[in-house]
Amino acid sequence: MKPQTLSEVAVVAVEASLEIDRVASPLDKFKHDQLARKIYENAHAVLSPEDIATIKDRIGKAWGAVQIGASWPLLDPTLDGR
Questions:
Q1: Tell me: the pLDDT tens digits for 44-63?
Q2: What is the CB-side half-sphere exposure of residue 77 using CA atoms within 13 A?
Q3: Residues near 60 by Cβ (< 8 Å), separated by ≥ 6?
Q4: How many angstroms from the chain centroid is the CA of residue 81?
Q5: φ/ψ of residue 45, rounded to 5
Q6: d(CA 69, CA 79)
Q7: Torsion of Cα atoms, 28 then 30 then 42 then 6, to 10°
Q8: In the chain, what percentage of residues exceed pLDDT 70?
Q9: Could you give the angle at which helices 65-75 and 6-15 cross, rounded to 10 degrees?
Q10: Distance between CA atoms of residues 80 and 76, nearest Å
Q11: What angle do CA 11, 71, 74 make, to 5 degrees?
Q12: What is the pLDDT of residue 57?
């Protein structure tokens, strides 16, 4: 099994069609796609607090505990897992 990068986990989560997206506006879906393009294989992407909150929320809804536990502290260093 190939290790996953934060970029891969985040892009899949942001682009995923989740249950909540059934009622999302086209503009929200466009914003998700723009965010995914911003972070795709871009370790130096400059993210706003809103971007980080969106990515964390989407990862939390799209992935399991392993990906959440590994990615959230990278996105928010105050979550050091201790």
A1: 999 999 999 999 999 999 99
A2: 0
A3: 68, 72
A4: 18
A5: -60, 135
A6: 9
A7: 50
A8: 98
A9: 110
A10: 8
A11: 110
A12: 97
The amino acid that residue 51 corresponds to is: D
CB 78 within 8 Å of CB 42 = no
Structure tokens at 52: 């980080």
- Rounded to whole angstroms, how far apart are CA atoms 78 and 2? 28
DSSP notation for 1-24 = -PPPPHHHHHHHHHHS--GGGGG-
Rounded to whole angstroms, how far apart are CA atoms 8 and 31?
18
Confidence of residue 82 (pLDDT cuts 50, 70, 90): low
Which single residue is written with the structure tokens 């990862």?
59
What single-letter DSSP state applies at residue 54? H
pLDDT of 81 reads: 59
Look-up of token digits 């809103």: 50
